[in-house]
Amino acid sequence: MMKHKAITDIQGHFTLHNGVKMPYLGLGTYQADNEDEVVNSVKTALDLGYRHIDTASVYKNEEGVGKGIKASGLPREDIFVVSKVWNSDQGYESTLQAFQDSLDRLQLDYLDLYLIHWPVKGKYKETWRALEYLYANKKVRAIGVSNFLQHHLEDLMADAKVVPMVNQMEFHPYLVQQELIDFCNKNTIQYEAWSPFMVGKVFELDFCKDLAKKHGKSIAQIILRWNLQKGVVTIPKSVNESRIAANAEIFDFELPKEDVAYLDSLDRDERTGAHPDHFDF
């Protein structure tokens, strides 16, 4: 079972099954352009104390992310950098090449975490073999997957030498997937949220407004705190300085168990993104 330490501050972390410390709050960069927008948001987040930056080759902003990291002036080892291999690059040799291309764009020597972006049928096992090679050769400190349901994980793990360290999933009050979280916890796979705000839809929901009022916090802060209290790493995306700052102001309060349970109970298996079994690969 996964054991999580207390949620203390912006630079707190959950420990992956290989001992690597993964900061539990990060900056997502999906749809942040490759120009000043992503450079500034990455630098801003790092200036504010964030130590985890998430990107992907398909976001087409790795160069900008790399520039933002460089502009922060922080030592490389202080920042947890994540990227992902895209569907069209999956397969053994092509994944190794895609990884090197991502490193070159980021202007980095290694990644902290590399993920398979989607479970492309007939390809993800070969892709995983490439990730295991990169991990064994210390090109990456941890390897994992994204958008893998339980049957994908079971299929992958049947032949894998290394159990994935992370599974990054769409996660919000309308898509909790507690059984999948439990499966990941049982297999020491760290669960991570993408789209924690349901593409902005959480801000329209009355129950979120009620919880925000009850705790004197913003809806975003309630949702992110719920993520962390469930032991889920979260990477809210923003390019707005005040929102990036506000998203980190979640360490001075705690949601009581009944509020966590209430948010859990809202699960209706409703996605804002593609279903992993029906993605148009």
Automatic annotation (TrEMBL):
Query: Which InterPro entries does the record cross-reference, listed alphabetically?
Result: AKR, Aldo/ket_reductase_CS, NAD(P)_OxRdtase_dom_sf, NADP_OxRdtase_dom
Q: Which residues form the NADP-dependent oxidoreductase domain?
A: 25-267
Q: Which Pfam families match?
A: Aldo_ket_red (PF00248)
Domain of life where this protein originates: Bacteria
| Alphabetical keyword list | NADP, Oxidoreductase
The entry's family comment says:
Belongs to the aldo/keto reductase family.
Protein name as catalogued: Aldo/keto reductase
UniProt source species:
Maribacter chungangensis
The taxonomy runs: Bacteria, Pseudomonadati, Bacteroidota, Flavobacteriia, Flavobacteriales
